[in-house]
Design goal:
Blueprint lengths: L1 H10 L5 E12 L4 E10 L2 E6 L3 E6 L4 E2 L3 H9 L7 H4 L5 E2 L8
Parallel strand pairs: 1-4, 1-5
Antiparallel strand pairs: 1-2, 2-3, 5-6
């Protein structure tokens, strides 16, 4: 329960996250959108996507993060499992590279 409260406090902006991926391109595998935001991690799970502060902050400008990338396939394959649960399971793929800008 204590971990849940800590995660909620981070999500609500009342406490700093353990780790924040700042200015990262977040790939939403459900809506097929990419947004630039901060991704807050608390207690080993993703607490929120938006604007956050953290004890450790990584500048991820021009980088991509795909929360739920693996879970998205599982969520679609398991009847009754809500796609929104993918963020809470904290399966994140962080691509520490900058895509080439061709043409």
């Amino acid at each position: 329960m204590k971990a849940d409260k800590a995660c909620i406090d981070v999500a609500a902006g009342r406490a700093p996250a353990d780790l924040v991926f700042k200015n990262v391109n977040v790939v939403n595998v459900f809506s097929e959108e990419i947004i630039t935001a901060d991704v807050a991690v608390a207690g080993g799970v993703i607490a929120g996507v938006g604007s956050y502060r953290g004890r450790t902050e990584l500048d991820c400008t021009d980088k991509f993060l795909c929360p739920g990338f693996i879970d998205a396939a599982v969520s679609k394959a398991v009847p009754g499992l809500s796609p929104g649960l993918s963020l809470q399971t904290c399966t994140a793929v962080y691509a520490p590279f900058t895509p080439s800008k061709s043409g």
